[in-house]
Every structure is written in C-alpha cells, then in structure tokens.
Write a structure and sequence with these properties.
heterodimer; A: 428 residues; alpha/beta; ten-stranded mixed β-sheet; 19% helix; 39% strand; globular; B: 481 residues; 2 domains; eleven-stranded mixed β-sheet; eight-stranded parallel β-sheet; 21 strands; SUF_FeS_clus_asmbl_SufD (chain A); SufBD_N (chain A); SUF_FeS_clus_asmbl_SufBD_core (chain A); Fe-S cluster assembly protein SufD (chain A)
Chain lengths: 428, 481
C-alpha cells in the first residue's frame, strides 16, 4: 500500500496565501514563528485549569487545503431567507451567492485581501488571545487560507442574515475558518456560521471570528457547531464594541468530542453593550471547555453573559469567566451567569466565574449554579399525564430556550431550536 | 522616650538592621534584642537541625522537618495564579528561630503614641494593651493561664505548645500531625513544616463541651510566638471547642513573613469553631494554610477576619469526610492602601449529604485590593451534597479594587451548588441621608461599612466584634472626602 506523505499542521510552515498583499504574507510568516516560540499550554496555566491538555496533540492533522476537494454532499438545514450564502468545503469556496445593499462588502477573505487590502489590514486580528490559546491563534493565522469578510458601511442595514457554512470532509484534516465582521457607524448585520462534518472522519477546526461593532451599530453573530463526534474545535471569538454599539455573540455547541471556546468582549466606548450567549448540550463523552472575558475599558458600558449547559451521560464542561472593569470605567454594569443542568449522575462541571473590579459606581454580579431536575418538577408533569422521560426532556428544553430567546431573531431562534431538538432526539 | 533609629542597640550592625527593617514605614520603632537561641539568618538543613536540636526533638520530627525543607526548596512560587509580590520575600533575610528572650523586651514607654492612642480608642484593657504592644514584663497572664489550664486538665483537655505536644503526647497528636495538611500541600506549608515552632496542640476528649473559648494569646505569651506556628486541634467524638486566635497584633511586628499551618480534626459529631482576627502591621506577608477534616456529623467553622498585613493569602478549608459533615467559612476582609487581602475558602466534599457554606464580605478602601478565591469540589458517586457561596464586595474609593475567583467542580447530578457574588459601593443617597441627620461624611461611611458586615460580625464573640467594629472605624477614617 502506498501512502501519500502529507504535511502535519504542526511540523512545517504552510505556504502563505498566494496573491495576498505583502503585509499579510509577513503576518503569516510571523505567526508561524510565534506559534513555534509560544509555550504549549500547561497544567500551571490558570487558563487551562481543569482543561484537557491531552486534546492538544495536533501532530497527526493535515491542512485540509491539501486534500482533494471532491464533490461533497452534505445536508445542512439553514434559514429560509438570507441575504447571502457562502459554503466553504475544506477551506475552499464551493458556493457563493449574495444579494446585498450597495456598499456592503461580503467576500471570501482571499478576494477581500486583493480587492480591499487596507480595509482588511485595519481590522484583521487586532486583538490578543488572552484566554489561553494564543499559540493556536498563531497557528490559525499561519494556516489561514480562507474565510469571510463582511463590511457594512455607515448607516446601512442588512436585513436578512448572511450565512456561512464551514464543511469539514475527510479524516485527520484540519480547517482554519476565519470570519471578520465590521459594522461602521449605525450599521446593522446578522451573520450565522455553521460548522458541520461530511462523514465520520476525525477533523480539527481552529476557527476565529473577529467582530468589530462601530459606533451605534448592531452586530449579531451566531455560531452553530454541529461537527461529528470524533472531531475537535478551538473557536476563538474577539468582539470589540465601540461607543453606543450593540454586539451580540451566540454559540451553540452540540457536536465535537472536544470543543474549546474562548470568547472575549472589549467594551471600548461609552454606552457600548455586549451580549455573550452560549448554549451547550454535551452528551456521551463530549467535553466542552469555555473561557470568557468581559473587558470594560470605558465608563457607562454594559455586558451580559449567559452560558447554559445541559449535560448528559459522561460529559464534562468547564466554564471560566472573568469580568474586568478597568480603573476609570465607572458606571459599568457587568453580569455573568453560568447555569448547569445535570441530567445524569456521571456528568462533571467545573465553574470558575471571576471578577476583577478596579472602578467605582459599578454594578457587577456573577452567579453559577449546578443542579439536577428536582423530583417535584417531574412529579408535577407526571401528574398531568406526561411520561417522566418526556417530562425531563421538556424541562431540559425549557432550560435551553431561555438562552435561545435572547438571540433576537425569530427565524434564527426557530432554527437553533430545531438543532437543539435534533440533539435531544439522539439522546436516549 | 524619643522613637528614632538611635534606639537601636549598637551591637546590631547595618546588615542586621536592614534585615529586620524590611519595608518599614517611618514612625515605627525598634528595640534591642538579646536571644539565647538564634538560628541565624537564612534557611538550610543546619538551620532545621539547630531548631530540632534546641527543642530536643525525636528523630522522626527532625526527619519530617528535613523532608519538608526539600519540598519547600523544590516547589516554585505559586505566582502563576498568585500575586508577583511573593517574589519580594527574601528568604535569606529571615530568621527562622529565636528563643528565650525572643519576646521583645520593651517597656510601655517605647510604644509610640499613635499605637497607644489606637489601643485607647479600641478600648483594649490596660493589661491586654501591654501584651499587644509586646511588653512582656507588664503583662502577667501566667496566673490566669494556669487557672485555665487547671480547669481544663480536670476535664482531660490537653492544651500545650507544639514541641510539648509532640514530645509528651505523641500517641495522640502524631497520627494527625501533618495529615490534614500534608507537607507538600504548598510551598508555605512545606516551609512551616521545616521550621515550625510555637502554636497550640489541643485535644478535647470525648463528649467534653468547653463553654469558654480557648484563646491563643495565653499560649503566645507563655510560649514564644514564632512566625511559623503550628496548630493542631483534635476534637474527639461529640466534643465542642471554640478557639480564638487573637493576632490583633503588634504594629511593630518585626517579622516580614508569617507562615502558619493550622490543622483541625473533628471526629464524629464534634464541633470546632476557629476564630481569627488578623491585624498584622502592613509590612507582613501573611501566608497561612488552614484546613480541617470533619468526620461523620461533625462541624467545622472558620471565622476569619483579615484587616492587617501587606499580603494575606489564606483560604481556610474543610474536608467533609464523614456523612452529614458540615463546613463553614465566614470571612471578612478589609484592604487599605498597599494591602492585598487574598482570602477565600476551600470546601472539599468527600461523603454523602455533606453541606458547606461560605459567606465572604470584603471592603476595599483607597488603593486596597481584596480578592476572594474559592474552591468547591464535589467528586463522583456522592449524593446530596450542598454548597452555598456568597461573596459581596464593597468598594469605597474609585481607586479601590476587588477580584473574585471561585472554582466549582461538581460530578454527578444529585447535588446542589450555588455561587453568587456582587460588587457595590456605598451610594451617595445613603451618605446624604445620614449626613442630613447630622453625621459627618466619615461617620456616615463608617456606619455604612459596619452595616455591610454587620450580619457577619455578629458571628464573632462579643469582645471581638466590638474590637472589630472599632478597628473598621479606624481604618475608614480619612477614606472619604
């Protein structure tokens, strides 16, 4: 048998993106060096406390861009009405259609780099990864070959959502999707990222999304992660909310053997508002690791985080959240809530909700709870003729709906709920 | 007497002086020293042997100490999560053992006026003031202590220092010594294990319920209060004891490092309450490891109040080992300029139907920083464990800082945990309301702060709570306006 020797994503420097501007090539070269120079996460790092370091052996993965992009057919349920739709298969653009207002730029990153190099440069990966995966953010940057760039100019509103599908096909392949969304003053847009496997191969996805909400703008972002159960994902989200803007990021995790989410919101201007939402339904042996950071750098800013985990079987979640209020960021409201519903006796949760407050006139709170469904609740529903198994599912569903309702887009909420129901259906 | 550098005895050379006076604010005073036993500066195996030799310890204790020294040297500073200020501890500039005459020979006249005034305002009795100022000659607690001792020994209570405990009552204390907090628990518990001296070893026999609290400062006065004291309290089945550690201590504490280990063992149905009011001077690193094991239906409560020190790192813990055990930590911290109060609680559930409760209130004044760091651990296969954690922080000035870092691990679904934290400040309206009724701003602020911690202060015995309130009043002075 002959095997084709494919390069490992960790072994040698990937070739940089062809036809990209010089600054981007330089950035990719520098990122590779950063990746090599950065220390590997260790037990000693607070950002990896309770984390699964053994998941971080990526040596056997090959960039998917090297693999044949054969015809891949995978059914994904999306929204009925969209203003643009992009499908990337193994980091290559497979399909694109868009019907957008004038002035809106919505292009694969490859094309955006050629057509709007300055605009991309201004916003591309400006934030640091402070939540533990700086090394993998560098790896992402070095391997980056595609993604989506969305730019909404001043005062423009994109009514229907933009959909982006990231499909991973094949075994031991890695993709590095990137979503960069910029809304200028008073603009409005909704973007949905879907992550999905074609087949049962073990894939790796190191995804990043940068959300930059300009003054008074509204930026809504949702990610639906539905990879197969042998895949892994590291998803890094960086949100910057400028003056009077509203940034909302939602993540649904139902797939993957191991998923690590790092979500950072920087509130940089007065009146900025950031909603950080996440819904996680791990089952079987799934392990989800969530790290969040609400950084209030300006006065009169508001952030609200709600993470809900519904755990089945032998699944495990880690939640580590931090609110930092800088000196001078007075009159800040920052809330952080992590709720865990334990559906089986073999589940494990780790919760580390943290606060760092250096300002005055601040309203901050965090809460973390963990508990099972009480017998009274089941009894109540049973008394009304509902089978206990069904009753448990109803309550778990209701628990999830509280997060979904905050997405603020009915069609999208219904879609997310359908994913949740599909997940519940797989749980015996 | 005028307080100045000239009061230093001439035999103390420049280096020594520098070592004693690390980070000392002006206005503090110094005193001549004369020690019969002095292990010198720095720490090595000889220092440990010297200490063990002076104490005429058995071989196993020396071995225990030497092993601990290895552990101490091999462990890194925990600066990956803790403050970098730890790197400012100069282990070579510390004297690890002083005895006989270690009690500073001071006279009441040596005590600076501001300290006298503090005592005056705290309403501490004259005798106690002298003790608190470290004026040994004027404080005669031996008699009182002897009385207590006699009454206690009638009931079979053993209340001795660590040296005596391990020498005279080895069969009682050895099985638990170093078992609740193993040497390798952390760098500072290892340090303590290597050089410990002083502290209390207490045994309460079955069914004995002590009505009077045992107080640490009897022990301190009759025995040298080392900077590395070691306390082990064993409450046998069904017994009850309250222990109070009064380090409402000298502003002129020369030590730069205080690193104690306190181990509590509550056997079936026993109750232990351990109360600390910590008011070290603001140049002391206070790095203390405290943990208790609660067996079946036993209860351990830590009531912990931290007002002094430059850096306090203290997370009292309870391991609930027997079914129905209860653990509780009630913590008050006040951080003023230059202080970091890094306190919290550790609740380890190791049996079914165990309950733990943590209530922490912290106040940050000026540039003070107070931190809550907690751990709650509920492992697999347990049922019916409950934890409640509440931390409230009050920020007084715009430069004040507060951090909260809890960590909660729950395995299995038959438990209930909840954690809540809030951060707030004294509202303008509240101050205005009180000022309208004739209080000045400072008084109003003090009243508000005392109100904030009032429900916890009630947990302290009367004399402590009165003292605590006054201490807080003092700290709050000049914090507004």
């Amino acid at each position: 048998m002959t095997t084709l020797e494919l390069p490992s994503i960790t072994a040698e420097q990937p070739s940089t993106l062809a036809d990209a501007p010089q600054w981007f090539t330089d950035a990719q070269n520098a990122a590779w060096q950063t990746y090599l120079d950065s220390p590997a996460p260790s037990r000693k790092m607070e950002t990896w406390r309770f984390g699964e370091l053994k998941q971080l052996d990526f040596d056997s993965f090959t960039p998917a861009a090297f693999a044949d992009s054969q015809d891949i057919d995978v059914a994904i349920s999306g929204l009925d009405e969209t203003s643009a739709q992009f499908i990337f298969t193994n980091d290559s653009l497979a399909h694109a259609e868009a019907d957008l207002p004038d002035g809106v730029i919505c292009l694969p990153l490859e094309d955006a780099l050629q057509q709007h190099p300055e605009l991309v440069e201004k916003h591309f990966m400006k934030g640091d990864s402070k939540l533990g995966s700086a090394k993998f953010a560098a790896l992402h940057k070095a391997h980056l070959s595609n993604g989506l760039f969305v730019y909404v100019p001043k005062g423009v509103e994109v009514v229907k959502p933009i959909e982006v599908y990231h499909i991973l096909a094949g075994d031991k392949l890695a993709i590095f999707p990137h979503t960069l969304i910029v809304t200028e003053a008073n603009a409005k847009v909704t973007v949905v990222d879907y992550f999905k496997s074609a087949g049962d191969g073990a894939g790796l996805c190191i995804a990043m999304n940068d959300l930059i909400a300009g003054p008074g703008s509204q930026l809504n972002y949702s990610a639906i992660q539905d990879f197969n159960l042998s895949s892994k994902i590291i998803q890094i989200n960086n949100t910057t909310a400028e003056r009077d803007s509203n940034a909302k990021a939602f993540t649904l995790n139902i797939g993957c053997a191991w998923a690590r989410n790092e979500s950072l919101s920087l509130l940089s201007g007065k009146g900025a508002n950031s909603d950080m939402l996440s819904l996680n339904i791990p089952s079987g042996e799934q392990k989800f690791d969530q790290r969040t950071f609400q950084h209030h750098a300006a006065p009169h800013t508001f952030s609200d985080l709600l993470y809900k985990n519904t755990l089945y079987d032998k699944s495990k979640t880690v939640f580590s959240g931090l609110i930092t209020v800088d000196p001078g960021a007075h009159f800040t409201d920052a809330y952080q809530t992590c709720r865990n519903l334990l559906m089986d006796d073999t589940t494990e949760i780790n919760s580390m909700p943290g606060l760092q407050i250096s300002a005055d006139q601040v309203k901050c709170s965090h809460g973390s709870t963990a508990s099972a469904i009480s017998d009274e609740e089941i009894f109540y529903l049973q008394a009304r003729g509902i089978h206990p198994k069904k009753a448990r599912q109803l309550i778990a569903r209701g628990f999830c709906v509280e997060v979904i309702e905050r997405i603020g887009n009915e069609a999208l909420e219904a879609l997310v709920l359908s994913y949740v129901d599909a997940k519940f259906a797989t749980i015996a | 007497m005028e307080i100045s550098d000239t009061t230093i005895a001439p035999e103390i050379d420049q280096d020594t002086q520098a070592a004693i006076d690390v980070d000392r604010a002006t206005g503090d005073f110094r005193f001549p020293e004369n020690h019969k036993f002095d292990a010198g500066y720095g720490l090595n195996a000889d220092t440990v042997r010297y200490i063990s030799n002076v104490k005429k310890e058995k071989d196993w204790i020396l071995e225990f100490r030497l092993k601990a020294l290895d552990v101490f040297e091999s462990k890194p500073m925990p600066t990956n999560w803790a403050t970098d200020d730890l790197n400012n501890i100069d282990f070579d500039a510390i004297r690890y053992y002083l005895s006989d005459g270690q009690q500073p020979k001071r006279s009441w006249d040596d005590v600076p006026d501001d300290i006298k005034e503090t005592f005056e305002r705290l309403g501490i009795p004259q005798q106690e003031r002298a003790f608190l100022a470290g004026v040994e000659a004027q404080f005669d607690s031996e008699a009182a202590y002897s009385n207590v001792k006699e009454a206690l020994s009638k009931e079979g209570v053993i209340f001795v220092n660590s040296t005596e405990g391990l020498r005279e009552h080895e069969e009682i204390f050895r099985p638990y010594f170093g078992k609740v907090i193993p040497t390798g628990d952390n760098k500072f518990s290892a340090l303590n294990s290597a050089v410990f001296s002083g502290g209390s070893f207490i045994y309460i026999p079955k069914g004995v319920k002590l009505k009077q609290p045992l107080q640490a400062y009897f022990r301190i006065n009759s025995e040298n209060f080392g900077q590395f004291e070691r306390t082990l309290i064993i409450a046998d089945e069904g017994s009850e004891v309250m222990y109070m550690e009064g380090c409402t201590a000298p502003k002129f504490e020369t030590a730069t490092l205080h690193s104690a280990v306190v181990e509590l063992v509550a056997l079936k149905g026993a109750k232990i309450q351990y109360i600390t009011v910590q008011n070290w001077s603001s140049n002391v690193f206070n790095l203390v490891t405290k943990r208790g094991i609660a067996h079946e239906d036993a209860e351990i409560r830590w009531i912990d109040c931290n007002i002094g020190s430059r850096l306090t790192m203290k997370y009292p813990g309870v391991v609930m080992k027997g079914e129905g055990a209860r653990g509780e930590v009630i913590s008050i911290a006040l951080a003023n300029d230059g202080q970091l109060q890094d306190t919290g609680a550790k609740m380890i559930h190791a049996a079914d139907n165990t309950t733990s409760n943590v209530v922490s209130k912290s106040i940050s004044v000026g540039k003070g920083n107070s931190t809550y760091r907690g751990q709650v651990h509920i492992p697999k296969h347990l049922k019916g464990c409950k934890n409640n954690t509440e931390c409230d922080a009050l920020l007084i000035n715009s430069t004040s800082r507060t951090d909260t870092y809890p960590a909660i691990t729950v395995r299995g679904n038959q438990h209930v945990t909840q954690h809540e934290a809030s951060v707030s400040q004294v509202s303008e309206d509240m101050l205005f309301y009180m000022q309208q009724r004739g209080l000045n701003e400072g008084q109003a602020m003090s009243l508000a702060v005392n109100g904030f911690i009032n429900e916890l202060v009630r947990e302290f015995p009367m004399e402590y709570s009165v003292e605590l309130k006054r201490l807080i009043d003092l700290e709050m002075e000049g914090s507004v306006g």
